[in-house]
Write a structure and sequence with these properties.
By secondary structure, the protein is of the alpha+beta class. The protein has one domain: Jelly Rolls (Sandwich). About 40% of the residues lie in helices and about 30% in strands. The strands form two sheets. It has a four-stranded antiparallel beta sheet with strand order 1-8-3-6. Helix 1 crosses helix 2 and helix 3 packs across helix 4. The chain is globular, with a radius of gyration of 16 Å.
């Protein structure tokens, strides 16, 4: 896939909707199309976090490892959703794991590349942080509702 096609896909994604073209161009420079096979991990808890993903197809389980027992599934993300924000917050380490339920097509962003661009272009940094904070808030609310549902 060439950068022009990738840029078009990014511009259409809800996470990047209405992002200024100059910022989309910077993001495209840090992006790559990937495929993950069923049951493969996109990342594991404790590893260095250097990426985030926009899921284009398939489902990914976000898991909390539980020391030798079966991992606890916290959430499942699918087409149109964003996965991973630990690349954005020091110490840049995954706290959870992410495992493909089925074949996953995604756009992976190099976190180091993007952090460097955000340090140079503070407007880009603001846009990225603002958009990630909205996703983080939504996910936190979902987690609270899940806890209440389990507890209630």
């Amino acid at each position: 896939m060439n950068k022009k096609d990738l840029s078009s896909i990014l511009a259409a994604h809800r996470f990047l909707k209405d992002m200024p073209k100059a910022h989309l161009d910077l993001l495209t420079g840090c992006a790559a199309n990937i495929r993950v096979e069923p049951e493969d991990y996109l990342f594991k808890a404790g590893q260095g976090a250097d990426r985030f993903y926009l899921i284009r197809q398939g489902r990914v389980r976000i898991e909390l490892p539980s020391g030798g027992k079966r991992a606890v599934v916290i959430q499942t993300v699918s087409e149109g959703e964003l996965l991973g924000w630990s690349w954005l917050i020091p110490p840049y380490e995954w706290h959870l794991s992410a495992k493909a339920e089925d074949a996953v097509l995604a756009i992976a962003f190099d976190g180091n590349c993007l952090r460097n661009k955000m340090q140079t272009d503070h407007d880009l940094g603001y846009e990225v942080y603002r958009r990630f904070s909205e996703i983080m808030s939504e996910r936190l609310e979902q987690a609270f509702l899940q806890i209440v549902g389990i507890s209630g």
